[in-house]
Amino acid sequence: MKSIRLSTQTLLVLDRCSQRPTAWLYGYELSRETGLKSGTLYPILMRLEKYTLLEAKWETTEEGVPPRHTYRLTSNGLELARAKLAEARVSWLLQQPTLSGG
Prior knowledge:
elongated; alpha+beta
């Protein structure tokens, strides 16, 4: 598989999705929880879906309300999310200044 670019914003989306990996999440919900604007979030969601790391489906909640896309990680997406988030945390910890006693 072609390598996917994992920006800080993509890691935010993966982190949020991996917290409840079997739950279907709305784009608006992800936007609110990550702080990402739609112009940033939706291209990330489409790219993750393109690489089969995320699955999407249309959901109709009630009559008169337009259908909305919902998203959740695939098993490959969850595996990648856990690995990349762990790498990012280690990298972040290594960049932190050490505390000196005294």
